[in-house]
Design brief:
The strands form 2 sheets. A 6-stranded mixed beta sheet has the order 7-6-5-8-9-10. Strands 2-1-3-4 form a 4-stranded parallel beta sheet. Helices cover about 45% and strands about 10% of the residues. By secondary structure, it is of the alpha/beta class. It has 2 domains: about 140 residues, Rossmann fold; about 230 residues, Rossmann fold. It contains 17 helices and 10 strands.
Length: about 400
């Protein structure tokens, strides 16, 4: 019973989380000795022996092919930062619930009590036989880049860092429609991204893959370019593919002068006078939560299309539009990885869902649009076959 002296006792948020948000449910009934003898000993031994002879049968006769591990070290949780593995569990449970609700994918939250890159990689590799995919979550940059790449190199199942790629897919989908509304071609748009962490790097990479040619990525010290001596290898590579090809330099306010698109994935605040100097019919995605880099009231004074990461304004950029369908599609064809082609296909599928209703306040579907997961999954599965990573 709730403790009446507990200040959280009647808080609906805490009531919803009481006891956790998940449980394990059986898919078979055990009503008597016959079912018990098949589900467990002695009948289960036949299935074990078959899998030992042909390991691929685990996909058919266990839950592996529909189950993803949601793995974190609690070092970069939402906007809360490094709160540790125990405090991260409510978020990981929530992620698992979203996987099931929106994609029909079973998910198990795993919060690791280490921030050592080697230990995380080795732990996940050893856990991998129990899962059909790995969803990395809320691991701080730059370690997240190395962890993801090393796991992709060592595992033959999909490995996906949602903070990077889920955000990138939804941003691209929304941007495709915003550009269409404003009459721009993606290769002609001048784009500025504020933030060079996990999301900023992934958004930059997917926009480059989609055809953006004029892109400036800005961190706390200004536009990334290779003349700077303070860049990590990830930032240096991005600088060589962006500002080094366009000659952009300076601070964020300098980069915004005449820009068509601003995408904020960093937090902080952009001065209104800088926003006012953007191009006519500009596009502003301020995605920091709960406080966007450009408040929507300010953004709407200067931009044609505005999106945020919040649910109380139009055009919410929400990762739940991407990751359930991406894993659903990957699992449906038993993909060995998630390719760039699969991510681009997911973005195109999302964008297409609102083409008939496209407006300044509708550039991306609602997470509760029942078409979303199916459309994304179908596009991802088709792309997996094209990219030759599908096993069926």
């Amino acid at each position: 019973m709730p403790d009446p002296e507990n200040p959280r006792a009647h808080d609906p948020v805490f009531e919803l989380h009481a006891g956790g948000k998940m449980e394990i449910a059986s898919t078979v009934e055990l009503t008597g000795p016959d079912e018990l003898s098949m589900a467990y000993t002695p009948g289960v031994a036949r299935v074990c022996e078959a899998i030992a002879e042909d390991p691929s049968l685990a996909d058919d006769y266990t839950w592996v092919s529909n189950t993803v591990a949601v793995v974190t070290d609690g070092s970069a949780v939402l906007g809360l930062g490094d709160i540790g593995p125990s405090a991260a569990m409510p978020v990981m449970e929530g992620k698992a619930v979203l996987f099931k609700q929106f994609g029909g994918v079973d998910a198990i939250p795993i919060c690791l009590d280490t921030k050592d890159t080697d230990e995380i990689v080795e732990t996940v590799v050893r856990l991998a036989p129990s899962f059909g995919g790995i969803n990395l979550e809320d691991i701080s940059a730059p370690r997240c880049f190395e962890i993801e790449q090393r796991l992709k190199d060592r595992l033959s199942i999909p490995v996906f860092h949602d903070d990077q790629h889920g955000t990138a897919v939804v941003v691209l989908a929304a941007l495709e429609n915003a550009l269409k509304l404003t009459g721009r071609e993606i290769g002609e748009a001048r784009v500025v991204i504020s933030g060079a962490g996990a999301a900023g790097v992934a958004v930059s990479r997917i926009l480059l893959a989609a055809g953006v040619r004029d892109l400036a990525v800005v961190d706390r010290r200004g536009v990334l370019n290779s003349a700077r001596g303070d860049l990590t290898p990830v930032k240096l590579s991005l600088a060589q593919d962006t500002a080094d090809t366009t000659g952009r330099e300076g601070r964020l306010v300098d980069a915004l002068d005449g820009a068509d698109v601003f995408i904020g994935v960093s937090g902080g605040s952009v001065p209104e006078e800088a926003v006012a100097r953007m191009a006519a019919d500009s596009i502003i995605f301020g995605l920091a939560n709960p406080n966007p880099e450009v408040h929507p009231d300010i953004a709407n004074r200067h931009a044609r299309v505005v999106a945020t990461g919040r649910s109380d304004y139009p055009n919410q950029i929400n990762n739940v539009l991407a990751f359930p369908g991406i894993f659903r599609g990957a699992f449906d064809v038993r993909a060995t990885s998630i390719t760039e082609g699969m991510k681009l296909a997911a973005a195109d599928a999302l964008a297409a869902l609102v083409r008939d209703d496209l407006s300044e306040d509708c550039i991306i579907p609602s997470p509760f649009d029942k078409r979303v997961a199916t459309a994304v999954a179908t596009a991802v599965a088709d792309a997996a076959r094209r990219d030759r990573v599908a096993r069926r």
